Amino acid sequence: MELNVFVDVIKEYAQNVGFIPEKNGIWRKDINRPANEFESVAYFGFIREGQEPSGPYSDFSLCFMPEKTNDNTNSVSACAIVLVVGTQQFMYDGVLAQSPFTRRRFLRLNSNSRVYYKSDFSSITDPLPELITKLKEEHPHIRQFDDRFGPLVVAFEVVDIKNDFTVDDLPYEFKKWICAYAEFRGWPTNDSQRKEVVDVLDKLESINSKKSLTDNEIFEILKKDRYIILQGAPGTGKTFTALNIAEYKFFNEVKFTQFHAETSYSDFVYGIRPDTDSNTLVYKNSPGILYEAIKEAKEGKNVLLIIDEINRANLSNVLGPVFYLFEKNAGDNRKYKIKIGDLEIDKLPDSLYVIGTMNTADKSLAIVDFALRRRFTWITLRPKVIERDDFRKEEFLDFENMFMRHATDEELNLQPGQSYFIAADEEAMKERLKYELMPLIKEYINEGFLPSAKDEFVNYFYNKIGELMYE
């Protein structure tokens, strides 16, 4: 594709989504260079409004670094798309750089391609390792970033250009970057521009949805690792997923228990209890659900033990010496055996599988030490869009977007899951908002979470259901 045509197409598309040169941004172009300078200097793109038309600049810009073909023509074969901070660093975008939402805007772009990005967009001291290796090894004719410019790159992708195109058939890889930057800068001002940005970015999976595992994938992990914990926010389907897996024909027996604050070793493993049928005080053995699961697994059955709300109990007290048995790679040469009733074992049977569920928003979380974490495989279930007629996708995305804008990485674990948004009709969804979601969000805020989201949630609930979260 001819270089000048490529540049014009990018600029025209940006104008279609609201870019106005010299008004809401600065257009820069430095591509008319001799061959010996092109690879070290050439670029074009969009600079934050208020900057000079040339020379050093500050804040985030979206730049394009074209790579010419090797046939001595003015054609391009690839282009690096780079989100980069100017050499004068931050003047206005410093706060935005520290916001997790800024990173999440561009993290979405990695949904169906290879985008490299920093975990901290305010960090401009160290370069991305991939920036150096990818460009040097795969695209040596794209502008190579030196020690001065390299650390200022916070995200990039290299796109191959195989065919000519116009603004009407601009490849999606370019559209998504331009639309993400347009949304970030607030370029769209009319319905047509906003619709184009929404249509392009809606094709990307949400950050949460693209990380979701299927039940089959979780089942395969369980078969391999034997002990897993499904953790996640309320409504993400932890227990639902565990019970779905329990239906697999692989298991001969399934046992279910739910932990609570008073759960003890005697309840779960083995103990003694008074015989209420006797006229005198007599104690009898009381096998717990783990003992029963072990006995059946030792008979050769594939046994699944589901421990719901595993974090609600004092795990040290409940597990006691049995903690030693939860070892996935114990081998056959362990020196010590644990006595459980009439059993003496040094490891759990190979045909015993355990799924625990843990609510990451539960304030009663027990301390989970590193030794326990090592013994289980931890799988996070995240809120996700589900395909069913009674799923209220609009409201789900409203909540996801508010959490993406305001939540810290830790607070994302509080985002209500998809089951909150299953409602037969609009009236049922309003009741869900009023009696379940609004009290939940109010509790989060009262506990000190999501402080910057308070006003947005207050307005959201009032507009949706006519109710004030705070009187």
3D architecture notes:
- The chain has 471 residues and is an alpha/beta fold.
- 34% of the residues lie in helices and 18% in strands.
- The protein is built from 16 helices and 15 strands.
- The protein has helices at residues 3-16, 35-41, 94-98, 100-107, 129-138, 172-185, 191-202, 215-225, 238-246, 265-268, 289-298, 315-319, 370-375, 393-406, 426-446, 454-465, and strands at 26-30, 43-47, 60-68, 76-85, 116-117, 153-160, 227-232, 253-258, 270-274, 283-287, 303-308, 338-340, 343-345, 352-359, 377-381.
- The protein has a six-stranded antiparallel β-sheet, sandwiched between helices. Strands 8-11-14-7-15 form a five-stranded parallel β-sheet, with helices on both faces. Strands 9-10 form a two-stranded antiparallel sheet.
- Strand 3 and strand 4 (76-85) form a beta hairpin.
- Helix 6 crosses helix 7 (191-202) and helix 15 packs antiparallel against helix 16.
- The longest helix has 21 residues, at 426-446.
- The radius of gyration is 29 Å and the shape is elongated.
